[in-house]
């Protein structure tokens, strides 16, 4: 069994994402949800203002982006920096923890992008047999 397959008790970790009430489950949802993953990926490219981030993450509404940023900031993954300029300027960037999470997430994203021909072929086979 490799390290990634070990159960939390074997790793002596105080948290277990598979446990119903574990607080790590909420953070996992924030990171792996559609918008959280895309926001973390976009911010891995560097600091962005709200509207820059909204353009980079095509399809996200202003409300969802705001909610996502608040959740990621609360989890310590995103830093919101408001500057007292006129007009006010707010920049978002990854914290050190956010950079580590984004790096791991980008590995999965790049793997998935490189495997899409296989995924699309599997979808065609599945659909051709009536989805069963």
From TrEMBL:
Residues 22-120 form the HTH hxlR-type domain. Pfam families: HxlR. It comes from the Bacteria. The keyword Transcription applies. Keywords: DNA-binding, Transcription, Transcription regulation. InterPro entries: HTH_HxlR, WH-like_DNA-bd_sf, WH_DNA-bd_sf. Signal peptide: none annotated. Gene3D superfamilies: Winged helix-like DNA-binding domain superfamily/Winged helix DNA-binding domain. This is Helix-turn-helix domain-containing protein. It comes from Streptomyces hintoniae.
